[in-house]
Each structure stands twice: as structure tokens, then as C-alpha cells.
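retry 2 of 3: previous attempt timed out while embedding flavin mononucleotide. Reduced batch size to 1 and resubmitted. Inputs unchanged:
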Amino acid sequence: MSIAIVYGSTKGNTTGVAELIKSNFGDVDLINIAKTTPSELNKYDGLIIGTPTYYDGKLQDDWEAFDKEALELKGKKVALFGVGNQRRHSTTFNNGIGILYELFVKKGAEIVGDKNPTDRHTFETSKAVVDGKFVGLVIDKEVEGDSLEDNIAKWTNSVKKFF
Ligand SMILES: Cc1cc2nc3c(=O)[nH]c(=O)nc-3n(C[C@H](O)[C@H](O)[C@H](O)COP(=O)(O)O)c2cc1C
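retry 2 succeeded.
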């Protein structure tokens, strides 16, 4: 099964999380969304997709510019991870993966991997919360502290079961 971790990152935090996921996962490709195309991603059997949130609840710039509608996701397994900041952006915390989740579900993706409980974070509202849980892995580097690598490893293991 061919799997890619696909991420967007402006300041490097999401790149770091994507690299940690890869080191836990093993044989997967690591792809920056700024340097790929829908047809390249459509070749993969499974996608692990990450975005930070920017500009009051929007997708990171490279994800914004990418032609997401051209992704073929019907029946494809997709896992989602998001990076945000609850202290500065409490009302739009990690909105980015919520936006991708809504679009990808509409396009027929099967979302896999642990849905993180919300009690590890303190925030007002987030588009990433569906039925009381985050739609995937949610990271705020200010909150994770020493648990960052453990939290990523635990979630990665939950995704591995599906691939
Ligand atoms: C201008 C700006 C707007 C942001 N807006 C949000 C937001 O609405 N929600 C959120 O959770 N984080 C927000 N953040 C925090 C970023 O998502 C966070 O710093 C993240 O780690 C950046 O990821 P990157 O280093 O991969 O680009 C914002 C950061 C900046 C600089």
C-alpha cells in the first residue's frame, strides 16, 4: 500500500510534526503540499494530511492555493493532523483540519485514526470538533511540551492499523 504524509507549513512547526509522524511510521513518502500536484497525490492508496491554521481560522497558504477539488478521494483512507495555537486563537483553534475534513468527507474519503479528545486543550470554538471530538490529531506546541513525541507516536499507531 502506498502512503504519503502531505503537509503545508509556513514557519516549520507542521513540518516538524510531519517528520515525527514519518519517523514513527516508517516507509511513507513525505510531501510538501507546495511542491506537488493533485495527480501525484491521486496515485497514493492512503494519505496522512496536515495543516496549521492561519488568519483567523483559515487554511495555511499553500493548502489554500492547492486545487483540493481535483483530489480523488472516493473510498480513500485519509488521516488528519492539525497544528494551531489555543492561547492566541481560542475561537478558531485548529479550524484548518476541520475545513479539510468537511471537504474530504464530501469527496468520499474514509477518515481514519484516533479522534483526539478535546480535554487536553483549552479553547472556545473550533471547526475541527465534530461530535465532541477533534477529527484527528491536534497539536499546539505550547501545550504539548514534553508529551509532544508521545502524543504523535500514539496517534500514528492508531493510523497504522488502517494502512
Ligand atoms: C497570522 C497567524 C494567524 C493564526 N491563526 C490561527 C488560528 O486561527 N487558529 C489556530 O489554531 N492557530 C493560528 N495560528 C497559529 C499557527 O497555526 C501556529 O503557529 C502553527 O504552529 C504554525 O504552523 P507552521 O509553523 O507549520 O506554519 C496563527 C498564526 C499566525 C502567525
